[in-house]
Amino acid sequence: MILLSAENVRAYYFLPQGVVKAVDGINLSLEKGITLGLAGESGCGKSTLVNTLLGSIKPPLRLVEGKILLDGKEISKMNISKLKKDVWGVEVSLVPQSALNALMPTKKVIDFIKDALVQHKKFSDSEILSLAKKRFEELNLDVKALYMFPHELSGGMRQRVVIAISTLLNPKLLIVDEPTSALDVSSQKQVLRTLLDLKKSGIIQSMIFVTHDIAVLRQIADKIGIMYAGKLVELSSTDNILYNPKHPYTVGLINAIVTPEPEVKRRKIMSIPGQPPNLLNPPSGCRFHTRCKFAMDICLHKEPPLLEVEGDTLVACHLFSSSKGG
Question: Is the pTM value of this prediction over 0.85?
Answer without folding.
Answer: yes
